[in-house]
Design goal:
Elements: E1 2-7, E2 20-25, H1 28-44, H2 65-75, E3 76-81, E4 87-91, E5 105-106, H3 121-128, H4 132-144, H5 150-167, E6 173-178, H6 184-196, E7 201-204, H7 209-219, H8 227-231
Parallel strand pairs: 3-6, 6-7
Antiparallel strand pairs: 1-2, 3-4, 4-5
Helix pairs in contact: 4-5
């Protein structure tokens, strides 16, 4: 509460002198209000859970390098995030296919409607991750029905993904390469699709000169080329 104290005493005996006022504000009730607000926000705020990063350690089994490369090539998917909300992809390792612009395919982020079987990035990744996706979705239903705990869900999901990648060698490895024309939202949308489709292995890398050339041949946009490529007059 606030109080206003006035001093009517005049030692000099003179008249018409302005009265002196002292203002005192009591902030004691504000302490109680602050404690109530702090308690309210503590109970209403969702606490963030610590997240762990999975590390893929080298296996003890000796596998020939040629067989490892074949496995990577057969399961590799490269996503090129272009400008104007465009998304492109190719499968495998295209060292010999950089001259063919048809090797690079465009795929939408979401279904635009019209055709029931229209493919987008989510349906494509689910199809490539067939088997693993369905098993983890079944675990999600068990988690929702409280048949398993969240810890058990995480452990079993990791086991399913590890089996698909290391033992069965059927899980795709997705390589994400954003261009300079891509927006931050485009990159976040692509990473969200990795989580939704239960992709166990994905990474974000820089564009290679071959990727830039494929985009240039596909879209005819010189902005995708590097400075060195433009200086060399690549067409």
């Amino acid at each position: 509460m606030a109080e206003v104290q006035t001093n009517d005493h005049n030692d000099s005996g003179k008249k018409n002198k302005q009265k002196k006022q002292t203002l005192r504000v009591d902030f004691t009730p504000m302490v109680d209000m602050n404690m109530l607000l702090i308690t309210f926000f503590m109970f209403c705020t969702t606490l963030l859970k610590p997240q762990t990063m999975r590390l893929s350690m080298p296996t003890k089994d000796k596998v020939e390098e040629e067989e490892q490369n074949k496995a990577r090539q057969s399961s590799a998917i490269t996503l090129l995030i272009g400008g104007d909300d465009k998304l492109y992809y190719y499968e495998g390792m295209p060292e010999a296919a950089y001259e063919n612009p048809d090797f690079l395919r465009e795929i939408p982020y979401k279904k635009k409607g019209g055709e029931e079987n229209e493919e987008n990035i989510r349906t494509y990744l689910i199809k490539r991750n067939n088997g693993t996706y369905q098993k983890i979705e079944e675990l999600k239903f068990q988690l929702a029905d409280e048949k398993i705990t969240e810890k058990e869900f995480t452990e079993k999901s990791i086991e399913i993904q590890d089996e698909a990648m290391k033992k069965l060698k059927i899980a795709p490895t997705v390589i994400i390469k954003p261009t300079e024309l891509a927006s931050y939202k485009n990159l976040v949308d692509v990473i969200d699709e990795m989580l939704i489709c239960h992709i166990g292995a994905y990474t974000i890398l820089d564009l290679s000169d071959g990727d830039r050339y494929l985009l240039y041949k596909k879209t005819s946009k010189g902005e995708y080329l590097s400075d060195a490529q433009r200086a060399a007059g690549i067409k």
